[in-house]
Design brief:
alpha/beta, about 30% helix, 16 helices, 7-stranded parallel β-sheet, 8-stranded antiparallel barrel, elongated, 24 strands
Length: about 550
């Protein structure tokens, strides 16, 4: 991840003098940690408030958090309850930046009211009595009524779930209290600004949209070839650094007083494009795209959505699958896959917002597209050990670490590929084909079991590819029908991607030494079958060695 000071655009300088104290609530969250770091870099003293203890590692400022409070950071561990005395927290502060909230799509309005509404009201009143100069409240862009078109700050709002309803209520309460104070000359005046960021993502984020990055990681550990996804409702995203810069832009700026601003990037992507972008950022193989389910198809699963037992099973499966990913890759991650009924309805309609009003104040997104920002985010997560790596070197290291017993061998296959061309009137000429393969089985194949191995090697098909590097998986099935499957990907000289899928029969007692015919086909990135292959093993496997012996030799 690039340093914050390197990537930040030129922003208006806050009008408050360096050394002034600013209260940041929700300081242990993704945005709160970024704000704490940036404000300290700008020379402010920060009073950080959160129900969570101070993180042991300061991710965005010092490499290790000091054991005692430094001169410009005061960390307060505080779990709010209605009626608490908040005056000590706002004392001597020039501004309050309120990022704290309970983020949940499954809890009701009444369950979230105290944290997300009452806390805002009481904190604002305490800040006004303490003569704070500016109150910044972080809301969300999901408060707009679900419909087609683009949402500006004047678009109608309508909460679909309890969380959205509390955000709307907190905005209304803030406006109401400010107007009441303005009408009472004996009450100190406290200007406020409301920011409505789109779906937040980026380094340090652990909730809401951040849970989506676990899905390709789970699938990538289960299958070697992910289908792409196209279409679906469109929405904007907001990189955490852009949300941070929005706060700095409005902080102490009179042109932002009493106003609400959208914060979002410039590219509205479909849901399918978002998931595909995450898989690409991991470096996972993404195959032909399948269309995102339309409204009619989603309606068919409504009975399943309304079934609590089905959701419980789905949640349990996701949690267990993520635990296996963490165990296999030795991760210690705060990220968690989420399966909320309310979240499914976020993929029902477009939710596009524009941030023109904020840009008039000098703000500009440094991550204008999710497709660029998610690469930076995934790399940061990987550096922190929050998500796995799927690059070739990491996979080799993982295989080496997990080896206990098994076998490795090489084999050669020769035959012909029938490649369809448009120039021969539909006829399929024969193209000589040669495979050089190394198959690696971390576990020795056993009778009455299905075992998975790994394939590396090269192939040549006259007129298509020459000595192309391939990588994939193979399975051996030692129960009727006795067979092996081969599945791997490769690219040609023009960097076009292809996939081979094939099977061959084997003899149960001597599966790895049984020559036979391998039949398969090649598909391109559009899912079109461009060739069928028929190959023969030219000799029994060679270099048949135990993996344990290979490790000892190394």
């Amino acid at each position: 991840m690039a340093q914050i000071t390197d990537t930040a655009p030129v922003l208006p300088t806050p009008s408050y003098a360096p050394g002034s104290r600013i209260l940041v609530t929700g300081a242990a969250g993704g945005l709160g940690q970024h704000l704490t770091a940036r404000l300290r870099q700008l020379g402010f003293r920060v009073r950080a408030l959160d129900r969570m203890p101070r993180p042991a590692i300061d991710l965005f400022y010092d490499q290790a958090a000091p054991s005692d409070d430094s001169d410009n950071l005061e960390w307060i561990h505080f779990d709010y309850s209605p009626g608490d005395d908040l005056s000590p927290f706002v004392q001597d502060c020039v501004a309050v930046i309120h990022t704290a909230a309970t983020v949940s799509l499954s809890e009701s309005f009444n369950e979230l009211r105290a944290d997300n509404v009452t806390f805002v009201e009481e904190l604002y009143e305490a800040a006004a009595r303490a003569n704070v100069l500016h109150f910044i409240h972080i809301s969300c862009a999901s408060v707009y009524r679900a419909d087609r078109g683009v949402h500006t700050e004047d678009s109608p709002v309508e909460g679909f779930n309890g969380y959205e309803q509390t955000k709307i209520a907190s905005e209304s309460a803030l406006t109401r209290h400010a107007q009441a104070n303005s009408a009472d000359e004996s009450t100190p005046q406290l200007p406020y600004t409301i920011l409505r960021p789109a779906l937040l993502y980026g380094p340090g984020c652990t909730s809401m949209a951040a849970s989506m990055v676990t899905i390709p990681a789970i699938l990538g550990g289960m299958i070697s070839y992910l289908p792409g996804l196209s279409g679906g409702p469109r929405t904007n995203w907001c990189h955490i650094e852009d949300a941070l810069n929005a706060v700095i832009t409005v902080l102490g700026n009179p042109d932002a007083f009493g106003r609400c601003f959208n914060v979002a990037d410039n590219a509205a992507l479909s849901f399918g494009e978002v998931l595909t972008a995450i898989a690409d950022a991991y470096g996972l193989d993404v195959g032909p795209s399948v269309p995102f389910p339309n409204a009619s198809m989603l309606a068919l699963v409504t009975p399943l959505i309304d079934n609590d037992s089905a959701f419980d099973i789905g949640r349990h499966f996701m949690r267990q699958a993520w635990k296996r990913v963490q165990s296999r890759h030795d991760l210690k991650s705060p990220l968690r896959p989420r399966l909320d009924r309310s979240a499914l309805f976020y993929v029902d309609d477009d939710s596009i917002v524009i941030a023109n009003e904020l840009q008039k104040l000098g703000w500009k997104p440094i991550w204008p597209s999710f497709q660029r920002g998610i690469i930076d985010t995934i790399r940061w997560y990987q550096e922190q050990g929050w998500v796995p790596r799927f690059d070739r070197q990491s996979q080799v290291e993982l295989l080496d670490a997990n080896r206990h017993h098994g076998i490795v061998y090489t084999e050669e296959l020769h035959g012909f590929a029938h490649v369809a061309t448009q120039s021969n009137g539909g006829q399929q000429p024969q193209n000589a084909t040669a495979f050089q393969l190394e198959l690696e089985w971390p576990t020795i194949p056993r009778l009455l079991a299905v075992t998975e191995g790994h394939i590396n090697g090269s192939l040549t098909i006259d007129g298509l590819v020459h000595n192309a590097t391939l990588q994939g998986i193979s399975t051996i099935r030692l129960l009727p029908p006795f067979q092996m499957t081969y599945e791997f990907g490769f690219v040609d000289e023009n960097q076009n991607s292809f996939r081979f899928c094939g099977t061959r029969k084997v003899r149960g007692l001597l599966p790895l030494r049984s020559p036979g015919q391998l039949d398969g086909h090649i598909i391109n990135h559009r899912g079109e079958c461009i060739a069928t292959l028929s190959l023969q093993t030219t000799s029994p496997p060679t270099k048949l060695l135990p993996l344990l012996t290979e490790r000892l030799r190394a």
